[in-house]
Amino acid sequence: MAGRRDLTSYRYRKQRARLLAESDICHLCGHPGADVADHLLPVSRGGDPYDPDNQAPAHGINRCPTCGRNCNGEKGDRARPEALNTSRDWYAPRR
User: Fold this and answer.
1) Angle (nearest 5°) at CA 33 between 90 and 81
2) Who contacts 92 (Cβ-Cβ below 8 Å, separation ≥6)?
3) Residue 83 pLDDT class (50, 70, 90 cuts)
4) pTM reported for the whole predicted model
């Protein structure tokens, strides 16, 4: 969503830094190296952009170094999945 001031505010950037300092394990693929704070309930669906309980580490801009996914980008504007669909090979990069 373009123009999201909440993603560039000092408050959000400090909160994201704290979250990633605690853990860099992506909540979507389970690999280390997460670089963004994913909103579990998207802001566009009523999620609080500043609630630490509504955020989890995810791979975004820098993609996962293990599986190559842009986990947050693939999740998009959907709520957090309850569990990964293990019938699909989540670790194979999309082409």
Assistant:
1) 40
2) 67
3) very low
4) 0.72
